[in-house]
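2024-03-11 09:14:02 INFO worker-7 job=invfold-0412 stage=load source=structure_tokens
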């Protein structure tokens, strides 16, 4: 079935510091951010403003409560906003580790500790729950695969079957590392496209869906399979081709409390915040669908 004409992806401005301060702490299997709206606490033994005299070094300022979130990279822009809003409401610092959902699940299996796991496909939370890594989880927003192309669609990519066309440079997510890789594999099967044929055209395999957007924008790829929200968040240089609902599936963002948490009440409060009105409003601004796709 011929597909509809490509739609221009509407860019979403990246998070600014007004919502909070994001400090890059480092990268290990993904990117870590610390999101906080709290001002820096006074140094140990500091005197209240307006008083003079000798400071008392034994009096330490109260430690700020923190929450460790393992989050799929596909959700990063929205999750940064949600984390900052949660900090503003509760005063709790949120430390975010971003990577592909498959990479994060592998880290959890190795015993890394944290409080919350949020993925761009409920499959990963279901697996984590079965393996005893998550105590509870909730499903929230919807994502649908689309074909990301350069502005104007110069290679005239219209259907999933076009990805097997000779000479096309294709990008896919890693089947093991990220949810979009798993979704792409299912999409090819549903459309009767041999993965081997597309593999011959695949010149880039991404560990996270965000990497595919950059490759298409830079002209290194002619087409890639990405999430619809990811395509709409693209800052420019790309269009996307929707895939008819009868030819594609969808994924559900899911978030859950890790069994390793040392602050279960706060972790559960964060989950409720994500799936509640505040979180839903923020995810909507980043082009996530709140209702099942038609």
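2024-03-11 09:14:09 INFO worker-7 stage=emit residues=294
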């Amino acid at each position: 079935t011929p597909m509809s004409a490509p739609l221009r992806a509407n860019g979403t401005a990246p998070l600014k510091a007004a919502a909070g301060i994001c400090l890059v702490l480092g990268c290990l299997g993904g990117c870590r951010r610390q999101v906080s709206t709290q001002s820096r606490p006074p140094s140990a033994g500091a005197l209240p403003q307006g008083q003079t005299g000798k400071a008392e070094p034994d009096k330490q300022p109260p430690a700020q409560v923190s929450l460790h979130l393992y989050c799929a990279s596909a959700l990063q822009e929205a999750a940064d906003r949600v984390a900052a809003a949660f900090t503003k409401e509760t005063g709790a610092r949120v430390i975010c580790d971003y990577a592909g959902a498959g990479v994060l699940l592998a880290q959890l299996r190795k015993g890394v500790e944290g409080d919350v796991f949020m993925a761009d496909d409920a499959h990963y939370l279901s697996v984590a729950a079965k393996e005893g890594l998550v105590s509870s989880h909730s499903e929230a927003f919807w994502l649908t695969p689309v074909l990301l192309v350069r502005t104007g669609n110069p290679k005239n990519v219209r259907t999933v079957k076009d990805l097997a066309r000779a000479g096309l440079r294709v990008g896919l997510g890693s089947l093991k590392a990220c949810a979009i890789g798993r979704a792409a594999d299912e999409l090819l099967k549903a459309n009767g496209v041999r993965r081997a044929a597309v593999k011959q055209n695949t010149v880039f395999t991404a560990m996270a869906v965000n990497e595919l957007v950059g490759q298409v924008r830079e002209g290194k790829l002619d087409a890639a399979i990405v999430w619809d929200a990811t395509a709409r968040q693209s800052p420019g240089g790309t269009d996307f081709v929707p895939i008819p609902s009868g030819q594609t599936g969808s994924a559900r963002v899911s978030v859950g409390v890790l069994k390793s948490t040392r602050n279960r009440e706060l972790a559960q409060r964060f989950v409720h915040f994500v799936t509640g009105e505040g979180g839903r409003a923020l995810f909507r601004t980043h082009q996530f669908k709140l209702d099942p796709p038609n």
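2024-03-11 09:14:09 INFO worker-7 stage=report msg="The two ends are 17 Å apart (CA to CA)."
2024-03-11 09:14:10 INFO worker-7 job finished
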